[in-house]
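hi! just following up on the protien thing from before. the input was this:
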Amino acid sequence: MAINADKPHLWKGDIAASVDLFNDWFLRFAPDVFRKTRKKTTVQVEAALLATRDLRDIGASSLKNTPAVLPILRMSTAPPLARDRLVGLAGVNKSLVSRLEAGLLPTRMAVATLDEQLARISAIITRLLDEDVFPWLAGGAKPKSHERTRAATIVADRLCGAVSDPIVRNAQEQRQLALLERELTQRGYRRARDLAGRLFTDMQPGTFAFRLNIVVGTDRKVNIPVDVVIQPKRPQPGGFPILLEAKSAGDFTNTNKRRKEEATKIHQLRATYGPQVQLVLFLCGYFDSGYLGYSAAEGLDWIWEHRLADLDSLGL
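and the predicted 3d structure came back as:
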């Protein structure tokens, strides 16, 4: 039985209620989430400044020793450099920059080539360092503690600003999962344990799990992550648990850009396990009628966060 996919007459009101719910959460909690992340990032930036002798040592050897400082260095220039911009200006391998930012060094690159490319990166960053943020560089003096902290805060703000949407999205997703856990617990469900190496169909009735990898594919098997897997107290025919994807969005544009992700996931699941598999979206935020219509056409249904009673339709 469909939950909301077959009720387009309700979509307009639900979209408005969902937008209001997301906006209310954003105004009350997002600033605090952002500030906490910026505070943590400021500590990381200060550590990077100390590791590079307050940006006086960012040569090839320094990048080798602490490759993960590269994102911080990119945000220390005027103007701050996007990853691809640095690659273009320095004329280096993009995969090298990606590995450095993951805290790794390339394993197959010749030492001489690595040193040369690291030197190019260092030269570009050194040339573009923002002396308004790091005034001690012009005079050669060692910065005072408060100067270093001020500079670290500015760089941390730039770093967090560059990834502000993911920060908010991750916080919202954690909130959604916590809400679902409370709701399921109140309904008498418990967290599943010891699922490693077992099929998701082996879950005990009345249990649920978060972030479970499910194997799909026949010739080429891959794992796809599912946010919430729930085995009803009375399992469905075939024993398939209910699969939920927690989705939130702060604007309409990004949801329509990403709407194929869930469609691909349900197609992979049904191609592997059959049409009985049920993937339901758990929505909060900016999901317009275009997104909903596309999802319904692809065989997806959804539950709105502002109407948790719809979980009853899943037999929970």
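The longest helix spans residues 11-51.
Strands lie at 190-191, 207-216, 222-231, 242-249, 278-285, 301-304.
cheers
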